[in-house]
Amino acid sequence: MSDPTVTDPDKYTVVFENDRVRVLEYRDEPGQRTSPHEHPDSVMITVSGFDRRLIGGTGESREVTLQAGEVRWLDAQTHSGENIGETPTHVVFVELKDPVTATGSGATLGPA
Fold first, then answer.
1. Which residue of 32, 42, 62, 101 is most buried, as measured by CB atoms within 10 A?
2. Whole-model pTM?
């Protein structure tokens, strides 16, 4: 797996991780690009609005415009990207790991 924290350590930071999820913070400036990398199934939260070109693993591309405060599902994928807008990008990714079934015993109530 091409881990984004390895391919682009200047842009991706791990802010939390346990056996169920990994939370990444992503930041870039206009004109900056990422190297090809992979994400598992994830939830993306946009902290800032931005315009971006995404290039898939097989070369297809798509331009997206997102507003601050959006929450989106991302299927597992390989891509690279480029900030094609005039503002910095700031995003939080919650990457899902293997699912675990809740049993109700031994679980901590509320935030741990």
1. 42
2. 0.86
